[in-house]
């Protein structure tokens, strides 16, 4: 019997109303553009998740590879839920830890490139999914998973920071291990929030603690320190309502165990974290400050004080600051924290603020006339100056025996008999040279005194007169024409204007200061000086100028407060730490060494900054109690 082939042309039939219609199969395959679409057109088939599950169950390397790589992509989607897909979650954990289990079991020769690639893809998917809160909770509830994280962490930390731990045939995977360590710490950052009340010998805490000190990678260090801060969290004691009455009448014993992981941190490790504040990186600084706050303000009990949270915190503060040893961390913190409190704030520069006006007494020559004779140097002062080389000897002698003259002073005769021959504010050049020559006679005239060949010769007269303007910058050599008798030519008088003899010789420091300080301008009319009492001070003028400076500062200053947008968390955390240190150490310490250290680093700039920016006190960023240690 012959079987006729089935025609490939479509069948047609006549409907009840007449006319032809194509059958349903042709309608399904026809795409409307004049050609027949392939089978499955416009039908996507099974969902990706179902395909991934089937691929993982198949166990075929190619299918597993596709499934894990696809999961890394969809794990970024916020709806990816491990709780809804527990099989996928367990499979990810299995593939993540598989090569490390082989290494731990001394079967590292079985580790292949595919196993490492599967592990990294699975770890990356877990890392991405752990950014979502429900997935964090699901992973934290799997108790064996924490043990696996510890094992992998130990291996990776030992691999990178202990050279003798590396296995030769595994070095080909060094780059993948580095990638895995980064992903692992990213995964641990949220999960460590759920691992609380850890003991001093907790393996996860100790391996992360060791890595944080050894790593040179900034991002890795930051994430490790965040993980450690989370592991320091302790469970809060909850008192039920029905137990409140009993708690008020009885001393309730704290259920915390004095063997917390916080005591595993050594002084050297704390010093390493504190020294990171000197780097000047905001990300590092913020992370370290938050860790130090977690360390200092933790309510974990120490073995030394198992019944007192306050004493345990004080002990940790002493350990952090190294008060009983080098005080190295104390030096770093009291130096850096005040700087960090005001860092990146819109403040006025203290150098641009006008100085407080100098308080000057009004001088009147009617009470203190210009002496007609030059004061002599004391014996001790003479022994020092005479051995100076020139022109230092001449300059020093001039400043000790003469004083600059304030041009706003007036001269009033000291008696009613007439003006004296000594004119204030000027000396003749010849008298100045003669006084200098007489003072050091032993140098040029051996017969006039004991001879000393070690003494340098005096300046020549011309050089000496030229040097006067160097000793007194405001002085000036002048020639004055004097009226002569009738028929005679006017006489010339050579003088030095701007200096006059002192009442008493002064020491070298006072002489240098008087000669070089700015000349004060009196606020009182010189013509009326002689009518004022001795030592008069214009308090009203002084107060007016001082108040004007203060008003200028307040008008120009920005209102920096804790609610200001310019304030960041670094400023606030630094304030909390410094205030705690000042309160617990400086205010309660009988030893003044710590106070002196705090003053050494901050007395030269912090008071001036507060003066230029009073809103720092008003806004609460600077505690006024700190300033008493800077005086």
Overall geometry comes to elongated
* Helical segment count: 27
State the end-to-end distance.
121 Å
Q: Tell me about the largest β-sheet.
A: 3 strands, antiparallel
* Helix/strand structural class: mainly alpha
Say how many strands there are.
7
In which range does the helix fraction lie? 40-55%
The low-confidence parts are 1-28, 247-253, 408-421
Relative strand content: under 5%
Strand order of the largest sheet: 4-6-5
Computed Rg: 44 Å
Mean pLDDT: 81
What tags apply to this protein structure?
631 residues; mainly alpha; 3-stranded antiparallel sheet; two-stranded antiparallel ribbon; 27 helices; 7 strands; 49% helix; elongated; disordered N terminus
Question: What layout of secondary structure does this protein have?
Answer:
Elements: E1 12-14, E2 20-22, H1 24-29, H2 48-58, H3 61-74, H4 86-104, H5 113-129, H6 133-140, H7 143-161, H8 174-191, H9 203-214, H10 218-231, H11 244-249, H12 267-275, H13 282-296, H14 309-321, H15 328-341, H16 379-385, H17 392-401, E3 402-404, E4 426-428, H18 429-439, H19 441-444, H20 461-471, E5 476-482, E6 491-497, E7 499-501, H21 508-516, H22 539-556, H23 569-586, H24 593-602, H25 606-612, H26 615-618, H27 624-627
Q: How would you characterize the overall build of this protein?
A:
The chain is mostly helical and 631 residues long. It has helices at 24-29, 48-58, 61-74, 86-104, 113-129, 133-140, 143-161, 174-191, 203-214, 218-231, 244-249, 267-275, 282-296, 309-321, 328-341, 379-385, 392-401, 429-439, 441-444, 461-471, 508-516, 539-556, 569-586, 593-602, 606-612, 615-618, 624-627; strands at residues 12-14, 20-22, 402-404, 426-428, 476-482, 491-497, 499-501. Helices cover 49% and strands 5% of the residues. Mean pLDDT is 81; it is low at 1-28, 247-253 and 408-421. It has 27 helices and seven strands. The protein starts with 11 loop residues before the first strand and ends with a helix. The radius of gyration is 44 Å and the shape is elongated. Among the domains are: 58-231, no CATH class; 379-519, no CATH class. The strands form three sheets. Strands 4-6-5 form a three-stranded antiparallel beta sheet. Strands 1-2 form a two-stranded antiparallel ribbon.
């Amino acid at each position: 019997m012959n079987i006729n082939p089935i025609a490939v042309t479509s069948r047609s039939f006549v409907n009840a109303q007449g006319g032809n219609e194509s059958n349903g199969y042709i309608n399904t395959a026809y795409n409307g553009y004049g050609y027949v679409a392939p089978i499955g057109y416009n039908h996507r088939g099974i969902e990706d998740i179902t395909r991934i599950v089937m691929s993982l169950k198949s166990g075929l390397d190619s299918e597993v590879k596709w499934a894990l790589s696809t999961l890394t992509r969809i794990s970024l989607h916020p709806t990816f839920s491990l709780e809804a897909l527990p099989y996928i979650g367990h499979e990810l954990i299995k593939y993540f830890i598989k090569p490390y289990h082989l290494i731990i079991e001394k079967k590292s020769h079985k580790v292949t490139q595919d196993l490492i690639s599967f592990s990294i893809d699975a770890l990356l998917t877990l890392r991405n999914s752990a950014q979502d809160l429900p997935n964090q909770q699901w992973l934290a509830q799997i108790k064996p998973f924490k043990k696996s994280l510890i094992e992998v962490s130990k291996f990776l930390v030992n691999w990178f920071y202990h050279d003798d731990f590396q296995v030769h045939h595994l070095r080909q995977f060094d780059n993948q291990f580095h990638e895995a360590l980064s992903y692992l710490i990213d995964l641990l950052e949220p999960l460590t929030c759920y691992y609380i009340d850890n003991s001093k010998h907790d393996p996860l805490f100790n391996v992360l603690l060791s890595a944080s000190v050894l790593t040179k990678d900034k991002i890795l260090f930051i994430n490790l320190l965040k993980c450690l801060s989370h592991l320091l969290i302790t469970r809060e004691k909850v008192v039920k309502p029905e137990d409140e009455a009993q708690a008020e009448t009885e001393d309730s014993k704290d259920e915390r165990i004095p063997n917390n992981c916080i005591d595993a941190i050594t002084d050297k490790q704390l010093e390493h974290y504190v020294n990171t504040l000197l780097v000047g990186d905001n990300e590092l600084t913020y992370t370290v400050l938050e860790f130090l706050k977690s360390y200092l303000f933790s309510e974990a009990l120490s073995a030394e004080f198992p019944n007192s949270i306050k004493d345990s915190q004080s002990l940790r503060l002493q350990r952090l600051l190294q008060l009983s040893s080098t005080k190295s961390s104390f030096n770093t913190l009291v130096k850096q924290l005040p700087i960090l409190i005001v860092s990146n704030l819109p403040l006025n520069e203290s150098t641009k603020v006008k100085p407080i006006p100098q308080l000057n007494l009004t001088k009147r020559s009617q009470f203190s006339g210009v002496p007609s004779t030059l004061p002599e140097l004391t014996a001790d002062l003479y022994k020092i100056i005479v051995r100076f080389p020139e022109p230092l000897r001449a300059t020093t002698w001039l400043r000790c025996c003469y004083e600059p003259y304030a041009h706003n002073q007036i001269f009033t005769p000291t008696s009613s008999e007439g003006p004296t021959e000594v004119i204030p504010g000027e000396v003749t050049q010849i008298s100045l040279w003669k006084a200098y020559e007489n003072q050091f006679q032993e140098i040029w005239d051996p017969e006039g005194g004991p001879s000393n060949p070690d003494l340098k010769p005096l300046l020549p007269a011309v050089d000496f007169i030229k040097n006067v303007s160097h000793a007194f910058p405001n002085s000036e050599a002048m020639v004055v024409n004097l009226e002569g008798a009738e028929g005679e030519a006017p006489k010339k008088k050579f003088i030095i204007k701007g200096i006059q003899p002192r009442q008493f010789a002064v020491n070298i420091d006072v002489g240098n200061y008087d000669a070089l300080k700015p000349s004060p301008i009196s606020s009182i009319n010189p013509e009326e000086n002689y009518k004022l009492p001795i030592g008069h001070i214009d308090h009203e003028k002084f107060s007016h100028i001082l108040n004007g400076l203060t008003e200028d500062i307040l008008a120009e200053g920005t209102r920096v407060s804790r609610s200001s947008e310019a304030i960041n968390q670094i400023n606030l955390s630094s304030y909390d730490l410094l205030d705690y240190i000042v309160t617990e150490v400086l205010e309660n310490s009988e030893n003044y060494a710590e106070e002196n250290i705090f003053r050494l680093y901050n007395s030269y700039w912090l008071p001036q900054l507060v003066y230029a920016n009073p809103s720092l006190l008003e806004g609460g960023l600077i505690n006024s109690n700190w300033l008493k240690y800077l005086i």
